[in-house]
Amino acid sequence: MKFEVIGKIKGKGRPRFSNRGNFVKAYTPSDTINYENWVKTCFLNQCKGQYDSSYEGAVKMKIDAIFEVPKSYSKKKTRELIDFEMPYLHKPDRR
């Protein structure tokens, strides 16, 4: 199966903590939940009927993240990136 998620890449946010009396509650930030739901929606819309929801087991995945060349890069560095002479070594969710 293959599907595409359009938009800015977002990494999973760190859990947040809040005090509830003598207890500490951990929760996932809402923007992380929204992005995870967006990826799920893209998958369900583009892969209708191609998967079995009762499947349990290991999954192999390949993720291709496509970026624009940063404007701060020199012309030489930009050309090297575009010609695949130099890899873009930043994490996809780098800000």
Describe the structure.
Strand 1 (16-20) and strand 2 form a beta hairpin. This protein has a two-stranded antiparallel ribbon with strand order 1-2. It is flat, with a radius of gyration of 19 Å. It is built from 2 helices and 2 strands; from the N terminus they run ββαα. Helices cover 26% and strands 11% of the residues. The model has no long low-confidence stretch (mean pLDDT 85). It has 95 residues and is α+β, with helices and mostly antiparallel strands.
Structure, briefly:
26% of the residues lie in helices and 11% in strands. It has helices at 30-46, 75-82, and strands spanning 16-20, 23-27.
Q: Which residues form runs of ≥5 with pLDDT under 50? A: none
- What is the residue-averaged pLDDT? 85
Order of helices and strands: EEHH
The biggest sheet amounts to: 2 strands, antiparallel
State which percent range the strand residues make up: 5-15%
Number of helices: 2
Helicity level: 25-40%
Number of strands: 2
Helix/strand class: alpha+beta
Envelope shape: flat
- Arrangement of strands in the largest sheet: 1-2
Radius of gyration: 19 Å
Topology:
Blueprint: E1 16-20, E2 23-27, H1 30-46, H2 75-82
Antiparallel strand pairs: 1-2
